[in-house]
Amino acid sequence: MNPPRVRLGDLSVGFVHSLADAVRSLGQNPDPLFEQYGLDPARLAEPGARLSIPRYMRLGHAAIQLTGEPGLGLRMGRLSRISQAGLAGVTAAQAPTVREAARCLIRFEALYGSNYRGQSSFNEDALGAWLRFYSISPYNAYNRFVVDSILASWLQQLSKLAGCELRAERIDIEFPEPGYAADYSVLSHSPVNFGTELNQLRLSQADLGLRNPDHCPSTWRHLLGLCEKELEHLTRTRSLRERITQLLGPLLNGGREPDLEEVAARLKLPTWTLRRKLAEEGTQFRAVLNDTRRDLAMTYIRDTELAFGEIAYLLGFASAEAFQRAFKRWNGQTPGEFRRSQRQAG
User: Cα–Cα distance between 157 and 151 in angstroms, integer?
Assistant: First the structure.
């Protein structure tokens, strides 16, 4: 049986609405572009509909070209609505405080979006909290807007909940300073730091403690329970192989590959138990690792503009040459031949 095809991730089509609003705010009609990507009104109204991350990145890039606005992601974030995050967003809108709303949006991120390479996190200390967003790197014209839109939308949605404008104490962004850097000034009390190790924004304890005037305790608890059930269902219906594949994405990086012991520890299983359970599913760890690398490599080559050396790094190969050899062994083609064949087919 062929393994399930690995994707870079996907997100709710609800996110497309803020992109449409941003395009319209700049005097352009997004409808022809959306039709080109199969996003007609029926598709946008479909419950649970998702859009792959690579397709979303191409859509955003096309919208930036249409509007001539490189900072379109920031505009998207400022026009976003919390309901666009689906059940998780509706639940967060009933949170008692900004803190609990932020926790909710991040804890239930899997209900409205999944990134195979990592996930967002909420890290609180005595003075405040970091809201961190994991994005696919290296960065280019296709994915910077995703980081911009998420960080700006967090601030916009939490401001709406609190009934006052929130500005971050600090914002760090992984990619180098872009030409539109001045546009970030409305998001933070201090200049934004570019070329950092993480994408994150910092909120103070005072801002985190702001109350939500629309909070209803019983509705909040009811919606929280629904989110927990949905999240549990997502986790329960994954096979062990799928759970391992999900873990491998963030662990594959920088010329190193994870081993069986590391993955077993992440799953809180003894190594021998993990080996036995995989055998019961008719596979073994090395096969899952190789299949994951192969499918991710095909996705990166087909759906992104990344150089082969960058892909080799993202998949944990020691060198671009080692990646090229492995890819030809898997597919009977070099990465360059595979990319050319996909472009011709498209």
Answer: 10
Query: Same domain for 85 and 67?
Result: yes
* Contact by Cβ (8 Å): 57, 144: no
Give the residue carrying structure tokens 């991350």. Answer: 53
Within-domain flag for 101 = yes
275: closest CA among 252, 259, 292, 296? 259
Of 171, 162, 19, 50, whose CA–CA distance to 102 is shortest?
A: 162
pLDDT digits (tens, 9 = 90+) for 141-196: 888 999 999 999 999 999 999 999 999 999 999 999 999 999 999 999 899 999 99
| pLDDT tens per residue across span 87-137 | 999 999 999 999 999 999 999 998 998 877 678 999 999 999 999 998 777
Q: pTM of the prediction?
A: 0.78
Question: CATH number of the domain that 314 lies in?
Answer: 1.10.10.60
Which domain does 329 fall in, by range? 240-345
Specify whether the CB–CB gap between 286 and 278 falls below 8 A. no
Q: Which residues pair with 12 in a beta bridge?
A: 50
Beta-carbon contacts of residue 146 (< 8 Å; ≥ 6 apart)? 53, 56, 57, 60, 73, 135
Q: Are residues 305 and 218 both part of a single domain?
A: no
User: Residue type for 267, please?
Assistant: L
Residue by residue, DSSP assigns 130-144 as: EEEE---SS--TTTH
CA distance 315 to 257: 8
Specify the DSSP element, H or E, that contains 249: helix 240-251
Last residue of a domain, one of 233, 257, 282: 233
Q: Under a CB-based contact definition with an 8 Å cutoff, are residues 167 and 55 in contact?
A: no
Residue 134: CB atoms within 10 Å: 20
Tokens standing for 59? 């859509």
Contact 100, 217 (CB under 8 A): no
- Report the CATH number at residue 161: 3.90.1520
Strands 50-52 and 128-133: unpaired
**For the chain, how far is it from start to end, CA to CA, in angstroms?**
27
